[in-house]
Amino acid sequence: MSKQQETLRIGIAGLGTVGGEVARLIETEDAHLHMRAGKKLVVTAVAARDRTKKRAAALKNVAWVDKPVDLANRNDVDVVVELIGGHEGAARDLAEATLKKRKPLVTANKALLAHYGQALAGLSEAYDAPLYCEAAVAGGIPVIKTLREALAGNTMLEVYGILNGTCNYILSTMRQSGRTFADVLGEAQKLGYAEADPTFDIDGMDAGHKLVILSALAYGAPVNLPGLKADGIRAISANDILFADELGYRIKLLGIARMTPQGLMQRVAPYMVPQNSALAHVDGVMNAIYMQGSAVGPLTLIGRGAGAGPTASAVLSDIIDCARGRQASALAVSSQHVKAVNMLPDEMSESAFYVRLMVMDKPGVLAELAAILRDARISIQSLLQKGRAEAGPVAVVFITHDTNEKAMADALLGLAKMQTVLEPPCLIRILPD
Amino acid sequence: MSKQQETLRIGIAGLGTVGGEVARLIETEDAHLHMRAGKKLVVTAVAARDRTKKRAAALKNVAWVDKPVDLANRNDVDVVVELIGGHEGAARDLAEATLKKRKPLVTANKALLAHYGQALAGLSEAYDAPLYCEAAVAGGIPVIKTLREALAGNTMLEVYGILNGTCNYILSTMRQSGRTFADVLGEAQKLGYAEADPTFDIDGMDAGHKLVILSALAYGAPVNLPGLKADGIRAISANDILFADELGYRIKLLGIARMTPQGLMQRVAPYMVPQNSALAHVDGVMNAIYMQGSAVGPLTLIGRGAGAGPTASAVLSDIIDCARGRQASALAVSSQHVKAVNMLPDEMSESAFYVRLMVMDKPGVLAELAAILRDARISIQSLLQKGRAEAGPVAVVFITHDTNEKAMADALLGLAKMQTVLEPPCLIRILPD
To answer: A3 pLDDT exceeds 60?
Structure first.
């Protein structure tokens, strides 16, 4: 901390959308931030690739360093804000160097935490340097603080949410417009809601990184990225969106971490969300997190999961906590208390399932389908067949009662082998009411 | 704080539903709470009217004091938890005595804060004793921490919410069952969701107490209970609920604090909430708060606003913050920065309005109504007349474009004087999309 009690001197690494906005707000909202932080906030040093780029922040009297890691060593920097991104290289080097210099670290880097959260939390404790990471998950939604502090008296039972704005935008737009996945993805790329290479978002890895951080916070478990199962939204068709509506659901990509008596169920996948739940109505790029605690019961947070303003809001709250001396234990409990939890073996994970098959409309199809499900001991809750086609495929959709992944996988193998089934079945899990 | 670094000794005043649950959780969840708080939590002393009452907490080795205020003076009490309620007498005495003894105070007492929040915040600073009050507003929903810490980097633009579970239960049940206000209120009283004397809840004062606390936190303004305007839900009929559905709304009792260029608009009243908003789907005894910040944009929190578990969850989070040394500035900014804000004169407050009139179904009624609105310079967005009656009243409902309270009040006076208008008009403000 600064010797000058009344000033907190900030070094920012990365002056992209978020870093630029943080720097701008520290300049333009200085009186407000001084009042809320109890100290004057000043950016004293920055590291960014391009010094000449036009930025909204004036950055007067600010030192530019060539290597981000140098921010950790500067005597005029009390706290380092890491907004570089990526889980290796400059970001990791800077994070480690900062903590080892016994300086507080504020980071928005979900990949870094998902890969090295445990090690960084250990460094934070060893060097008595707090590690703040509100902006790493769900942008402006204070879910880290909520799990770490507000729900600290609870044993958490379940955490799930809409953690990826790109996927939620695509799914919402597919529903509102009736258009296909590929079509809407293309538009999202043009609008800047999806990356040129959208793989990381639409295949569920971005949501997965966030989920394993939330899971560690909720259950006092080590951050467990290798233990994650993630499916994305590529297989969702316009048909599935229509069927979901008809059946009383909305399709959302969810990250789920639920504690069961047999272990922790952790998964990213598209889910059928009941229309009477708040999450069903969270559309566009918004994010939302549902938590269930032993004392508090259900708690839902809804807000902007990305973007300059919301992410800067989270970074500023960390900086202010730091100025106020509100210590953060990076992952809610200290390393000595972090305990590996049993992961629920995937085949034991239970839910109801939505399955869509594209079939030739011939006599006997339903009988064969029913026999396969019977043999897998899966019972059907409802079944829809849409229209009749003289030639070409028709959609058959059914919803099962609760069953486990093993039984469902067995049944899917059988269904895929049916001669009348024309494409791989589409499977979507159903979120309980 | 305790000399024994590893223990936080807690005195609890009030062992009703919430106090009993806090004491029980501290006993039964001791290992979990020790881990999260970094200290062992122990209840060392309690004050409650009836010592012989059977309680879920064992309360072994706990000292019983006769007068709550004695908890403040005990050497074996590091932090006082005030769960007595009421804004005078024992609760106020205890709160003041605790802070003056330089001990942290945790309180769930919204009435105390609504009346004396400013004075208590002053004591908290003068004696360097933190004041925590998460449980005072919206039970298990961490809205205090969110406004005080998570959104500290934002200038707040608007805060509103469903802050009273009793009213929300009554309105939700009226909608689901089609029954009348009086009927549902009676049932709520039998179920324990409404008090024998329900005035405080259904006339909006409970929500008002919570709103003025949120308003102070959001805008850095003094707690201003006298400046509050509050209407309740007595005038809402089963008809209004039906019309709301038809017009695309749900009726909710909201507390609203919105900063306008002309001053702070602060009001508790029933509102027409658009069905596409998350708050429209918050039913039963659940609470919800919507916040709009300059950087974060919109943020919604939904959860249980009352009850033993959720309120105990909030109290425990305060106790854990206290154990962790996470200081709380009771009302988000220190006294020196608290600034009175201009209140928006009520007549200048603008919104669209829903108005229901019960009229004799005679020719010329609509012409007279339209003339009155024209003279008040109010333009109508839509108008519904329900059915035709041979004799007896029919409902005429209209929705205005945005207008101000003064114009609307003038028009209402005129409408109430119409010979064909049979009851006082029912007026409900419309929440913008």
So the answer is: no
Residues 6+ apart with CB under 8 A from B393: B358, B359, B360, B361, B422, B423
Phi-psi region of A323 (alpha: psi -120 to 50; beta: other; left: phi over 0): alpha
| Chain A residues 254-293 with CB within 8 Å of chain B | 276, 278, 281-282, 293
Chain A interface disruption, residue of B296, B315, B331, B336, most A CBs within 10 A:
B296
How far is the C-alpha of B229 from the C-alpha of B218, rounded, in Å? 18
Interface test with B, best of A317, A334, A338 (most B CBs within 10 A): A317
Place of tokens 């559905």: B245
Gap between the Cα atoms of A397 and A190, Å rounded: 33
**How far is residue B429's CA from residue B337's CA, in Å, rounded to a whole number?**
34
A324 touches chain B (CB under 8 A): yes
Residue A2: pLDDT band by 50, 70, 90 thresholds? very low
CB contact under 8 Å between B140 and A296, yes or no, is yes
Cβ contacts of B76 within 8 Å, gap of 6 or more = B9, B44, B45, B63
- In angstroms, the CA A217 to CA A152 distance is 10
Q: Which of B291, B305, B256, B18 is nearest to B141 (CA)?
A: B305
- Closest of B153, B221, B214, B155 to residue A321, by C-alpha: B153
Residues B387-398: tens digit of each pLDDT? 666 677 899 999
Smallest Cα distance from B341 to chain A, Å? 15
Amino acid letter for position A20: G
Burial status of residue B119 (CB atoms within 10 A of its CB: 0-12, 13-18, 19 or more): middle
Structure tokens, A16 = 């992209």
Mean pLDDT of B159-169: 97
Nearest to B105 by CA among A53, B113, A398, A41: B113
β-bridge pairing A229-230 and A263-274: parallel
User: Is the ipTM value over 0.90, yes or no?
Assistant: yes
Tokens describing residue B143: 């809205």
* Alpha carbons A264 and A220: distance in angstroms, whole number: 12
CB of A345 less than 8 A from some CB of B: no
- In this prediction, residue B387 carries a pLDDT of 63
Please give the structure tokens belonging to residue A29: 């909202």
Q: In what order do the strands lie in the sheet with B131-132?
A: B63-64, B40-47, B7-13, B79-82, B105-107, B131-132
What does the alpha-carbon distance between residue A419 and residue B231 come to, in Å, rounded to a whole number?
Answer: 67
CA dist B154 and B21 (Å) reads 35
Averaged pLDDT for residues B101-117: 97
The pLDDT assigned to A10 comes to 98
- Give me the mean pLDDT over the A235-264 stretch: 95
E strands present in A104-191: 105-107, 131-132, 156-162
Check if the beta carbon of residue A250 is closer than 8 Å to that of residue A175.
yes
B22 contacts B315 by C-beta, under 8 angstroms: yes
* Cβ-contact B87, B77 below 8 angstroms: no
d(CA A342, CA A226): 14
